[in-house]
Design a protein that fits this description.
The complex is a heterodimer of chains A (481) and B (98).
Chain A: E1 5-16, E2 53-54, H1 55-67, E3 71-72, E4 75-76, E5 79-82, E6 92-95, E7 102-112, E8 118-132, E9 136-140, E10 145-149, E11 156-162, H2 169-186, E12 198-208, E13 218-223, H3 226-245, E14 254-258, E15 263-266, E16 279-280, E17 287-288, H4 291-299, H5 305-315, H6 320-327, H7 330-341, H8 346-363, H9 375-386, H10 392-405, H11 409-415, H12 424-437, H13 439-446, H14 452-463, H15 470-480
Parallel strand pairs in A: 13-14
Antiparallel strand pairs in A: 1-11, 1-12, 3-7, 4-17, 5-6, 5-16, 7-8, 8-11, 9-10, 12-13, 14-15
Helix pairs in contact in A: 2-3, 5-6, 7-8, 7-9, 9-10, 12-14, 12-15, 13-14, 14-15
Chain B: H1 7-16, H2 23-44, E1 64-65, H3 75-79, E2 85-86, E3 89-93
Classes of the chains: A alpha+beta (481), B mainly alpha (98).
């Protein structure tokens, strides 16, 4: 009988914090600057430079720790992790080994138990520590060298280390989603996997079901989408099982996922000598986070997704599905609430978000975080349709412009002459013309072919260039026929 | 000397520190490291029960910066430190063969 295996997974998640400046110097963290335009002696590791800690990094790290039910290490400090690699100009990374800022937390995820029933499960957080990001290496194959841009060097990171509590790719993704939402709601990071502001390394081992000891684990790097995480987990699980089944041993090593080839390979062990000779960083003084500081951060925690979901259910008459999607992005939830605050009906706002917004996001391959129209403009657009200033076809067209360039719908409608013709006389004469020009349809309708009126409505709308209310046109046609 | 550093250790430390030492230098380094470890052992003899571990020599804590951009574009000065420069970046040897 074939053996049954269990997959054991723990995650190391790096998150780039949304500070304006780097962790130890006053250089901008803005993405996309010219190479090395956001650098100084501190973040390029020049001798004699002195790092000074960005207070906001501590605030964000504590906020994330509290949201993940961690104990805050009130007296914490920084250590040097020594290794040579050109993206690390100091030859050490400033990190935290001995006294990480947060410890012993958990987040709850929705998963299924062994019988397939839905249940919730706690995933332990071993620790969260603060550290600095490295520079970016660009390989120049033509010249046979590498080029380094240190703009990212010193950008603040938190590394969230989980316990080996996950058992499947689904659980891993649920855990990452949970972290992403907590952190986005806190405004501590935008957590975009594709852009690298959230990165996950997967530690995975397999063991025979029921075994008490863990198997030998490997660490998988370079996973930059939920899809590649799921595939890498499945691939690595199978690779380890195959090794065990053929009587071989799993070697503890770091592997790199190749997304294009959907396979992984071992990183060379010499490059990866895991001997970092950590020691306390003498340039940085310890951080003491007193009770009052922790309480202040605790009291300024936002309304998280669960609470928001519950409140939406009570306050707004919108479907649960809409609530799931809207609260799945802090940014979208903010737009939803702000548009309602401008006087729009929740149901209408939800419809624009669920239908047109999601359609355009998908079309442009963007995330809800990229939505750039203002709530005031969406509220205006809703008012324009409610007051029948424009019809729904025109509204969609205006919305696309709004989505693209955040135009003011009122100004746009006036400028482009898109208002519906409400003058009854003008509309009536167009309808009369349409009736005169389409005797066949008129006859069909009079002979009982109800559908023929649809054609006449269409002709009228076309003649009106879309600027009429189809309902009014329909009524007018019936009256005149 | 109580602590004897063997050849394998000095070889390994050399790799970690990216140092290429001559045989003479290796012998000297073995002696130096051994005496350093002896000194640490000596310190270890002290009774430190009830003494809080010290993580910094100065009794100072919470030295922070506010999150405000204070540095501008100093590319030229920073790149002047590069042994070699290309397209506004530092040129370094290839990290893994292309």
């Amino acid at each position: 009988m074939a053996k049954e295996y269990e997959t054991v997974i723990g995650l190391e998640v790096h998150v780039e914090l949304a500070t304006k400046t780097k962790i130890f110097c006053g250089c901008s963290t803005q993405f996309g600057g010219a190479p090395n335009s956001h650098t100084c002696p501190v973040c390029t590791g020049m001798p004699g430079s002195l790092p000074v800690l960005n207070k906001q990094v501590v605030e964000y790290a504590v906020a994330v720790g509290l949201a993940a039910n961690c104990k805050i290490t009130q007296y914490c400090k920084f250590d040097r992790k020594n290794y040579f690699y050109p993206d690390n100009p100091q030859n050490y990374q400033i990190s935290q080994l001995y006294l990480p800022i947060c410890r012993d937390g958990y987040v709850e995820i929705e998963t299924t138990d062994e019988s397939g029933e839905a249940c919730s499960k706690k995933i332990g957080i071993h620790e969260i520590h603060m550290e600095e990001d490295a520079g970016k290496l660009i390989h120049d194959d033509w010249e046979g060298c590498a080029l380094v841009d240190y703009n990212r060097s010193g950008v603040p990171l938190i590394e969230i280390v989980s316990e080996p509590d996950m058992r499947s790719a689904d659980e891993v993704i649920a855990y990452l989603e949970k972290l992403r939402l907590l952190i986005q709601y806190l405004g501590a990071s935008d957590c975009k996997l594709q852009e690298g502001s959230m990165r996950a390394d997967v530690n995975l081992s397999v063991r025979e079901r029921g075994a008490r000891e863990f198997g030998t684990r490997t660490e998988m790097k370079n996973l930059n989408s939920f899809r590649s995480i799921a595939r890498a987990i499945e691939g690595e699980r199978q690779r380890q099982i195959d090794l065990l089944e053929s009587g071989e041993a799993v070697i503890q090593e770091t592997r790199r996922w190749d997304d294009a080839r959907e396979t992984s390979y071992a990183m060379r062990s010499k490059e990866d000598a895991q001997d970092y000779r950590y020691f306390p960083d003498p340039d940085l003084v310890p951080v003491y986070i007193d009770d009052a500081w922790i309480e202040r951060i605790r009291n300024s925690q936002p309304e998280f997704r669960e609470a928001k979901r519950k409140r939406y259910r009570e306050e707004y008459d919108i479907p649960d599905y809409d609530i799931e999607i809207i609260t799945g992005s802090k940014h979208m939830a903010d737009i939803f609430e702000a548009t309602i605050a401008c006087g729009a009906a929740p149901k209408k706002v939800s419809n624009w978000l669920m239908v047109e917004t999601l359609r355009l996001l998908k079309e442009r391959e963007e995330d809800p975080e990229d939505i750039a129209f203002s709530p005031e403009h969406l509220a205006k657009l809703i008012r324009l349709t409610e007051e029948k200033v424009i019809n729904s076809t025109v509204a969609k067209e205006v919305f696309e412009e709004m989505f693209r360039a955040d135009i003011d719908p009122e100004e746009y409608v006036t400028e482009k002459g898109l208002k519906m013709v409400s003058d009854d006389g003008a509309l009536r004469s167009v309808v009369e013309e349409v009736i005169a020009a389409n005797p066949q349809s008129v006859e069909d309708y009079r002979n009982g072919k109800e559908k023929a009126i649809g054609f006449l409505v269409g002709q009228t709308m076309k003649a009106m260039k879309g600027k009429a209310d189809p309902g009014t046109v329909n009524a007018l046609l019936k009256e005149l026929l | 000397m109580a602590n004897i550093i063997d050849d394998a250790t000095i070889e390994y430390v050399g790799i970690l520190a990216k140092l290429e030492l001559t045989d003479e230098e290796k012998e000297q380094a073995k002696k130096d490291m051994g005496s350093m470890l002896d000194y640490i052992d000596k310190l270890g003899e002290l009774d430190t029960t009830g003494v809080e571990p010290m993580s910094h020599v100065f009794p100072v804590q919470n030295v922070f910066r506010e999150d405000v951009v204070t540095n501008g574009d100093a590319r030229e000065q920073i790149l002047a430190n590069a042994p070699e420069e290309k397209d506004g970046m530092f040129v370094v040897p290839q990290t893994f063969p292309g």
